[in-house]
Amino acid sequence: MADERTRYFRRLSRLRRSARRWSVTAGGLGGAAAVLTPYAGLGLADAAWAAGAGGAIVLATWRWVDLRALAAQPAPPPVDPAQAAAHSRARLVAAVERLPIGPGVLAEVRRIRSRVALRGTSAAEPWARLDRAGATFTGLRGRLTGVAEPAVAEATAADRSLRDLAARVADVERAIRLAPPETRRPLQEARVALSGQLDSGVAAYERLVVAAAGYVAENARPDVEHPAAARLTEATDLLHGVASALAELRATDPTVRTS
C-alpha cells in the first residue's frame, strides 16, 4: 500500500499529464476551428469544431489550476521504513485473520517463530513441554464446562505468562554471552532464578492438563450403560428372537417362507 507521500506525487504526475494532454487537444481543436471556420459565418460543422475547442480550453485551464493548487501544498514527509514495514505487516495480518483458516495459520506461524527464537537456549526444552501441554489443553477446553470453566481462564493466562517467561530466560542468556566477565554473575543468578520459575510453572501447567483430562474422562463416563449401547443391545436381542422364531416355524412347517 502506497504511503501519503507516494500518493501525493502520483496525483501530481497525473494532473501534469492531464493538463498537458488537454492543452495539446485545445490547441489542435482551436487551430482547426480557426482554419476551417469560414469568413461568411458559422455552419453546423464549424460550430462543433468551435465547441470542442472551447471545451478543451476550459478543461485544460481547470487541470492547470488544480495542478498549481496541488503543487503549492507541501509534500508529505517521507515515511520511516520501519514504520512502513510494520504498517504493511499489520495490514497483512488483518487480511489473513479475516480468512476462515486465518487465526489458525497465524497461531501456527507465531508458535514456530517462538520456537526458532528459543533455539539453543535452556528455555527451549521447557517451552517444548509447554507447547505440547498447551496443544493437549486446547483439545480439552471445549469440554471443560460447569465447575471446570474457571480452569480455562487460568490455563490461558498461565500459558501466556509462561511463554513470556521463556522468552525472558532466553534474552538473559543471550545477554550473558555478550556481557563482560565481571558483570556476568548477577545475570547468571537471575537466569537460574528465572529458569527455576519456568520449570516449576511448566510442571504445574502439565499437572493442570492431566487434571483436566481426568475431569473430561470422568464427566463423560456415566454410572449406567450408555443409551446408544442399550438400544443396540435391545435391537440385537430382538433380531435373535425373530430369527429363533422363524427357525422353529420352518421346522414345524417346511412350506413357510421368509422375505
Automatic annotation (TrEMBL):
Out of the domains of life, which is the source?
Bacteria
Ordered alphabetically, the record's keywords are: Membrane, Transmembrane, Transmembrane helix
Q: What is this protein called?
A: Uncharacterized protein
Q: Please name the Pfam families in this protein's record.
A: Rv2743c
Show the stretches that span the lipid bilayer. 21-41, 47-65
NCBIfam families per UniProt:
PspM_Rv2743c
Q: What is the lineage of its organism?
A: Bacteria, Bacillati, Actinomycetota, Actinomycetes, Micromonosporales
Question: What is the species listed in this Swiss-Prot or TrEMBL entry?
Answer: Salinispora arenicola
